[in-house]
Amino acid sequence: MWRRKPIVAGSFYPGKAKELDRDIDLYMKQAGEKKLTRDIVCLFSPHAGYIYSGQVAAHSYREILGMKLDVVVVLAPSHRGRFDGASVIPEGIYGTPLGDVPVDGVIGAKLMESAGFGFIREAHEYEHSLEVQVPFLQKVLDGFAIVPVVLGTTDLDVCRTVAQGITAALAGEGRKWMMVVSTDLSHYHPYAEAKTLDHAFAESLKSFNEQEVKRVLASGKAEACGEGPVLAGLIAGKALGGNAVEVLKYANSGDSAGDKDKVVGYLAAAIVK
User: Fold this and answer.
1) Cβ–Cβ < 8 Å for 91, 103
2) What is the rounded distance in angstroms from the CA atom of residue 266 to the CA atom of residue 55?
3) Helix H or strand E segment including 118
4) How far is the C-alpha of 231 from the C-alpha of 208, rounded, in Å?
5) Residues 6+ apart with CB under 8 A from 165
6) CA–CA distances in Å: residue 122 to residues 5, 95, 201, 204
7) Does pTM surpass 0.90?
8) Mean pLDDT of 215-231
């Protein structure tokens, strides 16, 4: 059984539990009260260092604070290499400074038998985009397991195959589940230009149409480093009963801890039904 150790603790977020706990509490307090009144199928959350994107991520995670969820499927992009499909940790432990989270072996086994899935240890071992979601989940939920999925592609047909595997695994699941999609938006543009690009992405996301999202990203009118997870999450979200996307918060690094010359965009959103 593999215990996936935290690799960006102390850089992307505090490496000590007390400081990490304090910082997430502050972000959650700044995010304020819950906004959504409809059931949530999937959350979208950024994955930069917490001083940059933590305040935006909190706008997603506040929506599930205190909920009873048994399993969370986290979809994240690969920053260290491309591969054709998705890698899922089929079982084990996912560690952070806040403690260990069990990896759900039931859904993991189902995905391992699905087209488009396998287990590539290297895809998870040094990937920050999934890891940074876990401490937030630990702060808002109790007694849950995760299914860590890293996508190595943005090909729409492959993302559709991955989404079909997730849909099949969750459709008959009697436990309470949810998905999380990890993505940042535009990278290293001036502040005003970034806002234009990121607005175009948000509008395409609200269309709730994966082909429109793909079109906008392919045209260069928007950017998202989590394109594969976004596409797969939208497709699976629709198949699992979602019928709309609600945007909860937008900001970029120029609003948080960076200058405005070269910024990175962040979005909090949810698929609801």
Assistant:
1) yes
2) 10
3) strand 117-118
4) 10
5) 86, 110, 111, 114, 115, 116, 117
6) 13, 16, 30, 32
7) yes
8) 98
